Amino acid sequence: MDFMDSIRGMSFFDMHVHMTSRTTDDYQAMADAGVVAMIEPAFWLGQPRTGVDSFRDYFASLVGWERFRASQFGIRHYCTIGLNSKEANQLELAEQVMEILPLFIYKEGVVGVGEIGFDDQTPAEDKYYRAQLELAKEANLPVQIHTPHRDKKQGTTRSMDIAIEHGIDPGMVIVDHNNEETVKEVLDRGFWAGFTIYPFTKMGNERMVDIVKQYGPERIMINSAADWGISDPLAVPKTAALMKQRGISDESIRLVTFTNAVTAFAQSGQLSLEELTQPLNIDQSKRYNGSSVLRGGQAPRVDKESTIIK
Amino acid sequence: MNISQMSQTLFYLIEQQPDSEKAVDYLRQQAATFQANPQTSQFYRVFTAIPRYVGKHPVDVAPDMAFALERQRPRFTAEGWTLDRLARVWWLLQLPADDETTYVKTISQLFKAAELNELVALYSALPVLAFPESWRFQATEGIRNNIADVQSAIMLHNPYAMDYFDEAAWNQMILKAFFTDKDVTQITGLHERKNDRLAHTLADYAAERRAAGRSLPPNIELLT
């Protein structure tokens, strides 16, 4: 059975996806599958940047061009802004990036500081993770934490310990890339638990179904983290379909694929459930009274089945 | 144009908007702090944070206000703006204009780090900023921009291009407007700045469209 059949009419919020690395085909497929909103955390682009201007342009693209690109497919695009853990290790550059972060974290549609946390768990990573927790606290923004691939369990615990040490309310922290080994502690300590459905290296969605069955839908949310690697931008709708097939209630599916992420990130004051349940194009016609815009949400559609290209 | 008079008129327009008390209080307070001690960091912070305090309701421009704006800056209009856009343009006028280099540098930094709605406000402000000749290149960057709302902010209902673009830049803007499906009748100065070279280029463009079996954009006949 086509997974699309079982999720028709449902809306999804992919709370971690790197659209900068994806194509318009992905946007189209996501919109068709019911993805109405997404969060793009600032991350490592696959190779190190060598100057602060590259960071500035990247951050500006997350609040500018990428947001516009998404809007052409009727998708609301939010982002979290931060210095990722890998590049925190280039000390001189990291200092310069820290200087420009305040220019971006107060911008519209910036729903948190992220993704930040640990990669190798070096002293430099520790330093900038802490500095950014302070920024988030000052701006009253949620924090989106990337937990490390290596030494994950210990790194996850350490990330939460430090957040608490800095006086951050666990309810303001989304701990991402969880697995069976980390989820219990994250939930027990009152943090939000994000799960990345990403083939081969992170979670598979059958495992995800089992986790929701075991822990219930409270404070759990899933994402694709689709990026420049082998990943799947439809991970959220596909997992919703699988959950449905395996007997999880529509209400629980809605919580882990939509509402929980909205509740967590709405604490930024930059998005709301009310806003997300309105179609994007209505919003635009109101905002751009009388002037011709590129018909938001209705970009000319290419018929992919046709051999003829016009 | 007198900047402080324009600033007063824009502020009066903000005050006229329904339920704007909170916005007015915030803006007045920020302006007082900034005047007493003009810190660039505060200037940037307020510019960015404005939507949180003033909201995004569409602005209602009464006929007498429209007239007052036009009298101070010919062809300038705030019609169709939202309140955050209006407040941001007003806020830009609070920057001291005593030193051109500092002034241009400060505002150029805002362009560099701007998100979509900030860009819309910045381009809308070009006709009322100090040192108008300094923004020529920046204005052409707005037309090169690929985001529809940003293009519209500089192309439509904005007298800056009409007043400051040379013929090549003007013609590029008109072409781009046709290419990006803008309603060209909303371009300020469309008829005043008609020229032979533009007519020729547009005729070529129309021929190319016909050859490809595509339709012609509306109103192209106005300029050919």
TrEMBL record, chain A:
Read off the InterPro entries from this record. Answer: Metal_Hydrolase (IPR032466), TatD-like (IPR001130), UCP005295 (IPR012022)
Which UniProt keyword terms apply here?
Hydrolase, Metal-binding
Residue ranges under compositional bias (Basic and acidic residues)? 301-310
Which family does the UniProt entry place this protein in?
A: Belongs to the metallo-dependent hydrolases superfamily.
Q: Name one GO molecular function term.
A: hydrolase activity, acting on ester bonds
Q: What is this protein called?
A: TatD family hydrolase
Q: Which SUPFAM superfamilies match?
A: Metallo-dependent hydrolases
Region annotated Disordered sits at 291-310
TrEMBL record, chain B:
Q: Which InterPro entries match?
A: EboA_dom (IPR047715)
- Lineage, top-rank taxon, reads Bacteria
Q: What is this protein called?
A: EboA domain-containing protein
